[in-house]
């Protein structure tokens, strides 16, 4: 198994593209969040591959070894913490393992699972993204000399947000079991935070609070479903 893609191994990082030569595997089911990481990698010089589930990530990792793996905590087929734990114990170890979530309270669990660091959503700052990776790389993988710190923030195409909302609508149409609602609220929480959709964030919080209070059926579910469908009907507004 190659350590990283052959054509990338000879590329040395530069002051303006400090992640040149790296391959990043992002394990993320949100297209919007993944698009943000794709743009950050493009601006930084890194190559990106995407897996939208634990199963997909394992297939990728059976074929090649990326330099950096960024794992979302909430995935459709299980917890990203399990993958982080497995990667942290693997030999040879992935150079940089980072966890990500729209819920900052999971940071301690991410670190306990063996990740090198945590990136909270939304992942938008180019400088913060580059620093989160570079601080865990060995000296020989760092750019030589002073590094240009770019304070730009990226803005993913909102069509990716529409794709995420379509996914949620499809999931809710098929199933409203407690397990499905756990996944939907986690997924939408991160997506709404990344998209800076405050109304959606609040709707998700209300549903979570109702479920914790044992309200059955939670009225917040109907409200959230209507909001998702409303967003999808007004795509031109995003």
TrEMBL record:
<dbReference type="InterPro" id="IPR001789">
    <property type="entry name" value="Sig_transdc_resp-reg_receiver"/>
</dbReference>
<dbReference type="InterPro" id="IPR050595">
    <property type="entry name" value="Bact_response_regulator"/>
</dbReference>
<dbReference type="Pfam" id="PF00072">
    <property type="entry name" value="Response_reg"/>
</dbReference>
<feature type="domain" description="Response regulatory">
    <location>
        <begin position="23"/>
        <end position="136"/>
    </location>
</feature>
<keyword id="KW-0597">Phosphoprotein</keyword>
<feature type="modified residue" description="4-aspartylphosphate">
    <location>
        <position position="72"/>
    </location>
</feature>
<dbReference type="GO" id="GO:0000160">
    <property type="term" value="P:phosphorelay signal transduction system"/>
</dbReference>
<dbReference type="InterPro" id="IPR011006">
    <property type="entry name" value="CheY-like_superfamily"/>
</dbReference>
<protein>
    <submittedName>
        <fullName>Response regulator receiver domain-containing protein</fullName>
    </submittedName>
</protein>
């Amino acid at each position: 198994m190659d350590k990283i893609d052959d054509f990338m191994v000879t590329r040395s990082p530069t002051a303006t593209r400090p992640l040149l030569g790296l391959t990043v595997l992002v394990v993320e089911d949100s297209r919007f969040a993944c698009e943000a990481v794709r743009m950050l990698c493009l601006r930084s010089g890194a190559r990106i591959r995407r897996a939208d589930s634990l199963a997909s990530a394992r297939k990728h990792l059976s074929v090649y070894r990326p330099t950096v793996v960024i794992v979302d905590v909430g995935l459709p087929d299980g917890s990203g913490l399990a993958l982080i734990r497995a990667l942290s114990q693997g030999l040879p170890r992935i150079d940089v393992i980072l966890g990500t979530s729209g819920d900052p309270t999971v940071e301690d669990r991410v670190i306990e699972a063996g990740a090198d660091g945590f990136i909270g959503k939304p992942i938008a700052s180019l400088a913060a993204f580059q620093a989160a990776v570079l601080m865990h790389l060995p000296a020989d993988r760092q750019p030589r000399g002073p590094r240009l710190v770019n304070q730009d923030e990226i803005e993913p195409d909102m069509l990716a947000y529409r794709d995420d909302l379509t996914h949620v609508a499809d999931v809710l149409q098929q199933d409203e079991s407690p397990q499905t609602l756990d996944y939907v609220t986690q997924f939408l929480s991160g997506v709404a935070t990344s998209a800076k959709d405050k109304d959606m964030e609040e709707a998700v919080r209300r549903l979570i609070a109702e479920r914790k209070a044992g309200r059955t059926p939670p009225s917040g579910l109907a409200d959230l479903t209507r909001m998702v469908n409303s967003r999808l009907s007004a795509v031109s507004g995003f």
